[in-house]
Amino acid sequence: MNDLIKYAPDLLAGFLKNVQLSLVCAVFSMILGTVLVSMRVSPTPVLRAAGTGYVNIVRNTPLTLVLAFSALGLSDTLGVSFSDEPSTNSFWLVVLGLSLYTATFVCEALRAGINTVPMGQAEAARAIGLTFFQSLRMIILPQAFRAVIAPLGSVMIAMIKNTTVAIAAGYLAESAFVMKDTFDDTGVSIPIFVGIVVAFMLFTLPIGFFTGWLANRLAVAR
Amino acid sequence: MTENGDSTPLVVLEGVNKHFGSLHVLRDINLTISRGEVLVVIGPSGGGKSTLCRAINRLETIDGGTILFDGKPLPEEGKALAGLRSEVGMVFQSFNLFAHKTILENVTLGPTRVRGVPKAQAEQRGMELLERVGIGAQASKYPAQLSGGQQQRVAIARALAMDPKMILFDEPTSALDPEMVQEVLDVMIGLARDGMTMMVVTHEMGFARRAANRVVFMAEGQIVEENTPDEFFTNARTDRAKDFLSKILTH
């Protein structure tokens, strides 16, 4: 318990990095996931194939490999750099890798949502002269989003926990790394371990409750 | 509402064919619809009536033949096709109102997003149309809060909001409870009187007799008979039509 109190400021600083990563990745993965699902349901075969190919490859690659690729492949080999400051650079490499990865799950959740929207909605949209992308944006996706708020919440919770493997992209500031670093000094400390678990639960549990509540509130009556 | 004095037909179908797999659903359809005409399409289920109706705004593609709308072949895709559809209203059997939008939004979406009409103007016109179909008081509700008959009248208002050159009705009363059929038919009869060009797939003989200029009887993907409503219902020329009528008229 003394270890937890002694290292609490470091651990908290680390945990705030998890929160930061989560918020940025949530925004990017939602946007990219929406783009991907639009490709996957589009009438253009090339877009459909590209979307399907991307999702199948990235979704089935272990996250640590995606992150390692963004650090070793993109950054070290191809010279992609977000900042001269190594910790800032690796922060954005994690954001890149984790967003690219999480977007595939957002895409598939949304695609399940699109399947809940009756065919007639799209037909009515086309019949009044909306183009495919207009009907997707104004009619199909808004209903699809509402149908999968709870599953999207699960995707976001998984993404938040995934920020703890950021070390795979060389990012050394988040809480799981700080914990391991601390254990090197103190030996394994159960209170520290439990403290971090509790911090994550305080973050993710409300998301689960909130998305469940929102899903009921925004459900489309048919 | 129609361009009076323009005697060219609004819709011309020539040799139209369509297959669903091995099923030949439209066989060599030749049909002309004049401006201001109300055409009723009648016939047994699976006879191709709905497919014919949906082919005119290309919700169904065709395998052969041509369809001219207002003198031009139907565009195949993209913006041109969307443009055509904005000129052809459609009313579906299952209403298909946008479930996440209010009644008024259902009616103003097309004008604002397709035609670029300013929101206030679209809402004013939308309210007028909703009043006209008797739903003005429900404008801020959602579709699921309305009865089937009310939803279908909103769907008609939604089609009218685009100022279409014609409206296609695909079995507009088939999904309604019996007591709601008449309120929808009354709106349609009003439209017919105002000179709207209409193609109506229906079994409602009362409507056909009161409002239609012509009845087309379809079976097995073919147009079997074209006739005036009175002639058709009292004295059909073909055996296939007589047989069909004997089955539905006994009720």
Automatic annotation (TrEMBL), chain A:
The keyword Signal does not apply. Keywords: Amino-acid transport, Cell membrane, Membrane, Transmembrane, Transmembrane helix, Transport. The chain crosses the membrane at residues 20-42, 63-83, 89-110, 147-172, 192-215. The keyword Transmembrane applies. GO terms for cellular component: ATP-binding cassette (ABC) transporter complex. Its main location: membrane. PROSITE patterns: ABC_TM1. It is found in: Cell membrane. Gene3D superfamilies: MetI-like. GO terms for biological process: amino acid transport. Pfam families: BPD_transp_1 (PF00528). This is Glutamate ABC transporter permease. It comes from Planobispora takensis.
Automatic annotation (TrEMBL), chain B:
InterPro entries: AAA+_ATPase (IPR003593), ABC_ATPase_HisP-typ (IPR030679), ABC_transporter-like_ATP-bd (IPR003439), ABC_transporter-like_CS (IPR017871), MetN_ABC_transporter-like (IPR050086), P-loop_NTPase (IPR027417). Its main location: membrane. Pfam families: ABC_tran. GO terms for molecular function: ATP binding; ATP hydrolysis activity; ATPase-coupled polar amino acid-transporter activity. SUPFAM superfamilies: P-loop containing nucleoside triphosphate hydrolases. The keyword rRNA processing does not apply. It is a peripheral membrane protein. Residues 11-245 form the ABC transporter domain. It is an enzyme of class 7 (translocase). Keywords: Amino-acid transport, ATP-binding, Cell membrane, Membrane, Nucleotide-binding, Transport. It is found in: Cell membrane. GO terms for cellular component: plasma membrane. It catalyses: a polar amino acid(out) + ATP + H2O = a polar amino acid(in) + ADP + phosphate + H(+). Its EC number is 7.4.2.1. Gene3D superfamilies: P-loop containing nucleotide triphosphate hydrolases (3.40.50.300). The keyword Transport applies. SMART domains: AAA. Belongs to the ABC transporter superfamily. PANTHER family: AMINO ACID IMPORT ATP-BINDING PROTEIN, GLUTAMATE_ASPARTATE IMPORT ATP-BINDING PROTEIN GLTL. This is ABC-type polar-amino-acid transporter.
